[in-house]
Amino acid sequence: MTRSALLVLADGRFPAGGHAHSGGAEAAVKAGRVRDAASLEAFCRGRLHTAGLTAAGLAAGAALGLDPHELDAAADARTPSPALRAAARRLGRQLMRAARATWPGPGLDALAAAFPRGAHQPVVLGVTARAAGLGPEEAAHCAAYEAVGGSATATVRLLGLDPYQATAVLARLAPEMDEVAARATAAAREGVDALPAASAPLLDITAEQHAAWPVRLFAS
């Protein structure tokens, strides 16, 4: 494992398209559920232990070399919202382009050929981590961080929230991110059927509403 590769993959400036997505924060801000640093922290904690845990498990499984077709089907089954499934595949396509340019290799080529319309982003993330010489724990950490980092950054733009406060939220959640990554990795080692399937129904409902908005700042 190379720590430098982990930093590159987890860097928000890595051109994987995440900056265009709020992880449900835009809808939560509009509904008044996220309005300050405290409510942002509650929102991110909820995402981390539901969507974040599920994504981390899928990414860890892909980094372990589990069947990507089974993983992608598992991701579909864990994503009831059509809008979120479409967003996950768009993000998967964009991550694939960045990954193949950064860490070219047969694993990524095979995944791209198998899913010309894009695999789910956590699956691509795990295969990318493997191509970069990273293990399942590192892939799970990246997925867990993405689950909350994107929402925190989006809220700074949506509310004009002090970025120092948003960063402090992520720092306070760091121990829980470690816990989620560890749980996800342990489950992935037991196979696809053991992967987490934590749900967040409100995120699914608001994702469908958000997709129908005529004007929005973020893609999801």
Helix content range = over 70%
C-alpha geometry: globular
CA distance, first residue to last residue:
33 Å
Mean pLDDT: 96
Q: What can be said about the biggest beta sheet?
A: none
Unreliable residue runs: none
- Strand fraction equals under 5%
**Computed structural class:** mainly alpha
Order of helices and strands: HHHHHHHHHH
Number of helices: 10
- Using only C-alpha atoms, the radius of gyration works out to 16 Å
Annotation, overall tally of beta strands: 0
Question: How would you summarize what this structure contains?
Answer:
The chain is mainly alpha-helical and 220 residues long.
Describe the model:
By secondary structure, the protein is mainly α. 70% of the residues lie in helices and 0% in strands. It has ten helices and no strands. It has helices at 3-10, 25-31, 37-64, 68-77, 82-102, 106-114, 121-131, 136-159, 163-188, 201-211. Helix 3 packs parallel to helix 9 (163-188), helix 7 crosses helix 8 and helix 8 (136-159) runs antiparallel to helix 9 (163-188). The N and C termini lie far apart (33 Å).
Main traits of this protein?
220 residues; mainly alpha; 10 helices; 70% helix; globular
How are the secondary structure elements laid out?
Blueprint: H1 3-10, H2 25-31, H3 37-64, H4 68-77, H5 82-102, H6 106-114, H7 121-131, H8 136-159, H9 163-188, H10 201-211
